[in-house]
Task: structure prediction
Amino acid sequence: MHILIDNKSGTPIYDQIYSQIKAQIISGQLQENEMLPSIRGLAKDLRISFITTKRAYDELEKEGFLYTIPAKGCYVAPKNVELLREETLKKIEDHIDQILKLAASCNLSKDDIVSMILFAMEGQE
Amino acid sequence: MHILIDNKSGTPIYDQIYSQIKAQIISGQLQENEMLPSIRGLAKDLRISFITTKRAYDELEKEGFLYTIPAKGCYVAPKNVELLREETLKKIEDHIDQILKLAASCNLSKDDIVSMILFAMEGQE
DNA sequence: ATAACTGTATATAATAATGATATACAGTTA
DNA sequence: TAACTGTATATCATTATTATATACAGTTAT
Result:
C-alpha cells in the first residue's frame, strides 16, 4: 500500500487517504479480499493518529469498498459493479439537480431541458 | 413587500429574505425598477439587524436581481433575460456534458438519462 | 442647514461544523 | 499473556457561519 499525504494541500488527511485507497481499489491495484493495512499500522507509517485512518476506512466501508472483521482487520470488498453504478448515478443526479436549479432561475420548461439534452446526445454520437 | 421569517426553520434569516425577494422578482410580483424597502426599514419590520437584511440584498445584487444607488435605495433590476439566459444555458450545457460522460462510463442509454431527468423534475415540483 | 433618511465599511461575538486527537475498551491470535 | 486487531466516547483546536453594533458618508426634504 502506497499512500501519500500532502500537508499543504487543502484537502483533509482523512480525505486524501480515503481517495487514494478508493482509487487503488477501483483500479484493481488492490485485489478483492486483500487485507488492508491496519488502521494503527497505517497511522504509524503516516505519523498521524489512528483515528484519522479509521475515519477514512469508515467512509470506505460505508460506501461498500471494504469490509471489516473486528479484532482481525479490514479487507477489500468484492468488486461490486452495482456499487460503481450507484455512485455514478448519484453524480448524475447531482448534475441534474444543478440543471433544474439553473433552469428554474430562468424559467426554462421541462421540454426545453429535455430537448437540450437530446440535442447534446445527438451531437456526441 | 411581504416577507415571512420562520425562526424555527433551519434556514438562516438572510437566506429566507433572499429567497422570498428573489421569488417575488422572478414572478413579476415586484416590478422592474421598483424600489425595494430600505434595508433598515425592512430590518425594523422584521425586528432583526439591518446587517442581516443587507446581506440578503448583497446576495441578490451579486446575482443581478437588484441594483443599488448608495444613499438612495435598492431597486429591482431590469430583467436582463437575454444575458441571464445565455449564461445559464452555457452552465446547463456543461452539466449535460458531464452527465453524458458519466453515463457512457456505465453504459446508460439515452432513455435511461431522460427518464432520470423526468423523474427528478417530478420530484421537484 | 439640518434632521431624517438612504447604503457602506469595519469589527465583534456567539454558535455550529470540521478535522484531528487521546484514552480506555474488547475481541483475536500466536 | 503479549501483541496485535477494531470500537466507543470524550476532548480540543480551528474554521466557517450567522447575526450583530457602531461609526461613517451621501441624499433629500424641510
